[in-house]
Amino acid sequence: MNHKKKQTKKIAAGFVALSVLMSSPVYAAETTTTPVSTSVNAVSAFSDVSAQHWAIKHVTKLAALGIIQGYEKNEYRPENPVSQQEVIVMAIRMMGLENEALKSKSDTILPVAVDSFFKPYIAYAFDKQLLDIKEETDTSGAASKTAWGARTASREWVAKLVIRAIGKQGLAQEKALTPSIFKDEKDLSNWAVGYVNAAVSLKIVNGVDDNNFQPKGAVTRAQMATFLSRADKELTTRSDKVSIGYVMGLSNSKMTIQNERGQSSEYSINANTVIYNAKDDSRIASSALKETYEVYVIQTQGTASYIELTSDQERMGSLEGSLNQLFLPNMQIAINQASGVDLKELAPNVTVTDKDGRGLSLGSITQGSIIELKWNLLVPNAKISQIIVKQTPVSKTGEGTIISIQKDQNTVTFLEKTSGKNETFPLGPIVPVKLPDQTAADLSKLRVGDEVSYEIKANQIAGISIRKQADISNVVQGTLISISDDKKNMTINIGGKSLGAYFIAENALVSIEGLPSAGLFDVVVGDELKLELVNEKVVKVNVTSRSIKQMAFATIVNYDNDTKVLTGTFENGDLFAYKLTESTVFKDGNRTYPLADFSANFHKGDKIDLKVSKDKVITVQLTEQLEGILTQVNTTTNEVSIRTASGQSITFKVPDNLWVSFWSTTNGTLKDLKVGDSISARMKSSQDSIVQISVKKTAVYKILMANSDTRQVNAEDETGSLFTFKIDNNDIISNANKNTHTFGDIQQDDYLKVSYTGNTLTNVTILKTIRGKVTGVDTAAGTVTVQDYANGVQVIPVGQKFVIKQGGLTSAALTSIKPNDRVEIISDTDDKTFITVADSTKRTVATYDIVLNQIVLKPTANGDKTTYNLFSKAYLHKGTNIVAANAFVENDEVTVFVLANKIIELEK
């Protein structure tokens, strides 16, 4: 074999691309193995490159382009290094300039030493400035014993050649001033920084192990294939073997694509055609190619040997409805829409599949089936080219909960009781509705959260029976117009614009400020009311315009036994006169007197507290305690000023040894008090000074543990600070969730609103807490529908005062909550709602610690937290099946939903 033939064989090994996924050993001399110029099928597997090889896609692609060939025995030898002269030939072929290069004379005198076969290519590379004479002849470094052309190509040198080959020199100049991201940047040649940075920014090259680049490392044949394969996307001119366009038609043997200019080409596909996904370099089946997907095709004489899916973005129009009628002779289809029947033209080659992609015949579609029609947006006035049968007609009866009512689409979604899955059906032309008492109603009575049974006929809702209506809460405000004598209904004027008539629930609560035991008989026409409704029934009446007037520290001037008129002065000097009645309560400490004993126990000059509703005196009590806000604390003169609930400001002297009690201590002093503190002050019996001040405090705590034996609660506030307190009796407990109020109602992970006066616990309210999956958000109505883990579907009105917390940020926009979010919603007793959205991630289980009740997850590249405690009522499931915590084992793939560093939901 003569020398020229050897060189011809040798050049076949040079057309490969740089890998960025592994480092290469440095070879001191070129390989002595000689490649052969065999006629290898472009997509035949090389005997030494398995289907699992990391570079198989890139090697296959370059082989299909005719750039690389194999050695004897059909070997590719992917780990062999590539020489500089081989890289030049490869770069010129990639640029589509080989014919131009071969016009150069082979006897051209070159400034570098190369084998004769490569001379035309190297000469052309210098002529087109792909190579720079000064750069390649610089001998300032250590002299090489190997000829220039036969030297092993380094990673930084190949980066330079490829960036020049794809015309990105300008980007390299721009990036030359940017520091390298690699740890071994000191090993980069000065000229290489810009080229390497440019290659990184174009995602042609990354680092090797431990974020190094190894710039002087050798480039293997597998690596070179990867380098060029990735650079190919930057080319502006391509081989005539390459076509890029959108799939317009696909069968077992043919594929039609349309380029951006609207030109169509058809290619044969066969068993030798290979198809890859550009996203992850994986081999895929032809069925993964859908109409309008973008593809890169390498073909020879009309046969596609290599196809790459470059974008799976569909460019298809879509319309969904139920099949009304098929007109096969005319190739037309009519579907039912909310707006009526829509008639569409079908393409002659229309395809029909079920939702899983299985083929169906056009004539097999049953009337009433839920179908999706799709047409190609790349074709003007395109006809329907795809029909997907999503659901065949269903006739059945079912039970479940209404999840959503889509009025614009005329559909209802149910959470089916048996399967635990959502199912959506359109409403039929006439849908009778029955209430729980079996009385007839219409669709307006349906509400999200209703528990129902329903009948489906031919895929349409034919009837709904409400078994249990959802508890829908609402709040309305207005002026009382009338209330019936039996106190069972009332009418209010809402904002002066409309009237609202409401039934009153049995045992409805009435709240009038200053009147602890208010009832419906205390509500009078003209009162401004805020009504709390459940299912349109009044459960609580809040009188907002008329509080019980509380006047503290008034002075008695006279009491007339005959007229029963009490006169006196308020603290501000205003006079008052009230007629006392037998219904007035008279108190001195814990003692209560009848009206007949008033003059014997209340005297001129006594300080009294009055509670008055309009002109009716509710209570007269000798002043022994004041409630209010500190407006002055003077430690020099030992004086404090208190603003009472009625707006009075009263100044008192206090003793040097004033007893100050805080919720956390009983040993406070005057210096510990601050202006703005809410306090309760106990008077001296002479009523001229204060002997004790108790600071009042209200806070919300999350329960960590509640011990029913000791009645002790361990809790934390929103800052994570820990607190312990004891609840001695049930009388101070109130429960927003139900009528009972016992210590046993307090559970781990509940929230309590706790009030203290000094160090005395005065009230504990168990707040209503919802945890679950959002199924709907109605911004107009101000409601969030949640599929609660414990209590089923709940519709929560968030009111006007709400805060949404998500990922460390707060928001007051209900639109920031989306369906499928996992949330915790806490309703405060002051009409404020706190909504926290859980963080969610895909993770892998390491183990479950049964002793600590902790899920341990495998580490991530981002260093995410690995160990989590579980909420006491965490929802652990696989699909709709609830599973135990120990069912999660090593390597399980899970979705984790986390609130306050605890798992609220864990899904296999």
UniProtKB/TrEMBL annotation:
Q: Does the keyword Magnesium apply?
A: no
Q: Where is the signal peptide?
A: 1-28
The alphabetical list of record keywords is:
Signal
* Domain annotation SLH: ranges: 42-105, 179-242
Keyword Signal among record annotations: yes
Pfam families documented for this protein: SLH
Q: What is this protein called?
A: S-layer homology domain-containing protein
| Species of origin | Paenibacillus foliorum
